[in-house]
Amino acid sequence: MVQKYQSPVRIYKYPFELVMAAYEKRFPTCPQIPVFLGSEVLRESRSADGAVHVVERSCRLRVEAPRLLRKIAGVEHVVFVQRNVLNWRERTLLIEAHNETFANRVVVNENCSYTVHPENEEWTCFEQSASLDIRSFFGFESALEKIAMKQYTANVKRGKEVIEHYLNELISQGTSHIPRWTPAPVREEDARSQAGPRDLGSLEVDGPIGAPGPAPEVVVTDGDKLDADYIECCLGHLTPMQESCLIQLRHWLQETHKGKIPKDEHILRFLRARDFHLDKAREMLRLSLSWRKQHQVDFLLQTWRPPALLEEFYAGGWHYQDIDGRPLYILRLGHMDTKGLMKAVGEEALLKHVLSVNEEGQKRCEGNTKQFGRPISSWTCLVDLEGLNMRHLWRPGVKALLRMIEVVEDNYPETLGRLLIVRAPRVFPVLWTLISPFINENTRQKFLIYSGSNYQGPGGLVDYLDKEVIPDFLGGECVCNVPEGGLVPKSLYLTEEEQEHTDQLRQWRETYQSASVLRGAPHEVAVEILEGESVITWDFDILRGDVVFSLYHSKQVPKPGPQEPGARAAGQLTDKGWVLGVDYSRVEAPLVCREGESIQGSHVTRWPGTYLLQWQMHSPPGNVACSIPGVEDVLTALHSPGPKCKLLYYYEVLASEDFRGSMSSLESCTSGFSQLSATTSSSSGQSHSSPLVSR
């Protein structure tokens, strides 16, 4: 594979002639570049009027590689041939170089140019590009490639410093100005003897000139080029190879993309998201640009107007900036009725609103870059989880959240600079375990999580936010105008017809299983737990009637006795021979669930075995069944025309290794999460349940 390098435009704020005098000081040797052992002139020629000077040199470079590799290669230095064409009239120096050593195994080509700045003729621009093609090298191709690119980029950085060193030396010696070249007066007899213009190939030379090599790659500075000062000022410090990747990806867009070219900050985010692997970043960016075009995202800020309901109940908004100048977004997730919002405006409207937040975030980063005079390419998000409960684990809501995470990760990479999560309750580990596998590792490392009041004081918010901007609801003095959220009234929900139109109901129904509960014939689901500490989560909606929900544990797998097929279909898994406290035990107190309610809950298991989720029809207070009904009760219920209850349910088991792994990844001396993690992991001695009823 051919490795390529392309530099940005580096600007010397000195005239071309003075820069050329500094450049010539690098030869025949240059102590400031230790790997450069020396050079000798092979050929040299000048035009008749002295305007064009061509020099061909042989340059020796020391090999900086492991001793074993040098021994196998049998060389301590390599030879490069460099051809310089200096045109005083046009004020350009074009340089091309190629390797002579191992030329049949490794091909290195380099092209450089010094030109006059297009907007200031007293400044000089420098650009260089190179390619490396390792065809074969004694089985060490990969190692050689890494060594060569590392050494080359180190010399790229050093090259500019060397020129500046010699410029300062010239100035200190009293040479601060060198007159521009002017043609010598032409005598009349010389003018008559010239039959016509001559090109460089017919130049009179002071010595023999070799056959000209391939024309050097001319790099012209124009508005589509990036200069190094702009990168440093507006994009931040980049290594030479990172600069090269940015320029190459930008050039690819200019050649292939027909729509609006993304801004440099946005292109750079994709490179960072793929660790500056050019091909991977290009593919990620290509897919994102296609997505933006398909969904008209470039016009989102001009066309999207959130419904009034979202503006009132979506508890998020922008709030000044953090201590580093990043725009600050506050999300009071614990106060937000995600289920109500989805049922009132739909998932697509919520997604579009989240996208508009990300678009606005990029715009604010650009504004803060100009305001503070330093590169700001990401924002900070402060998430308040006070009020977070099992209602937020409503499965369609979790699925919608995962979809939004996926869309944002794919199309807005590296836009989150820091995520501050405060007042994380005990239910948070369950939510974190569900969503963390879908969050990129680089993004997860930016999370700081605080439980309780640990966000207050040293090590808390004051380390990341100025005291003047800490919101009042977190103990600060700054009034925060972010909406407080709250429950969305059911009267504002979309009708079933509207939900069907958006395909929302079908998607939700695919998440859940349906069940009917008859009097005396409960519906039961067996969950096998192979090890002690796991987390069982459940989420169900009562569509008709009232039911009692219970959770039981048994050391044995239920083996239903001889029952009618209908009993099996009704969902009962146990027989009348089981005795409460002997064959099975109740691990959750019965919970009465009314028609229309939505129930979310979780249970941290204490023992391995079989856990039974049971729904049975609710009876008057004096007749609530405390044991599993017998076969006769079930048969009677099946053949009686009595009422039945209907429900939709979903359950999931979070294995202990996943749960603990997620928790341990959050622990740190600065996160303030240790108490929450300890609470979670201490459940081996007792069970924890967090049911929530919402209407």
UniProtKB/TrEMBL annotation:
Q: Where is the CRAL-TRIO domain?
A: 306-482
Which residues belong to any copy of the PRELI/MSF1 domain? 3-175
Q: Where is the GOLD domain?
A: 509-653
- What protein is this chain from? SEC14 like lipid binding 5
What SMART domains does the record point to? CRAL_TRIO_N (SM01100), SEC14 (SM00516)
**SUPFAM superfamilies for the chain:** CRAL/TRIO domain, CRAL/TRIO N-terminal domain, Supernatant protein factor (SPF), C-terminal domain
**GO cellular-component term (any):** cytoplasm
Q: In terms of domain of life, where is this protein from?
A: Eukaryota
Q: Which InterPro entries match?
A: CRAL-TRIO_dom, CRAL-TRIO_dom_sf, CRAL/TRIO_N_dom, CRAL/TRIO_N_dom_sf, GOLD_dom, GOLD_dom_sf, PRELI/MSF1_dom, SEC14/CRAL-TRIO_domain
What is an example of a Pfam family matching this protein? CRAL_TRIO
Alphabetical list of PROSITE patterns matching this protein: CRAL_TRIO, GOLD, PRELI_MSF1
What CDD domains would the database entry show? Answer: SEC14
**Segment Disordered: which positions?**
179-212
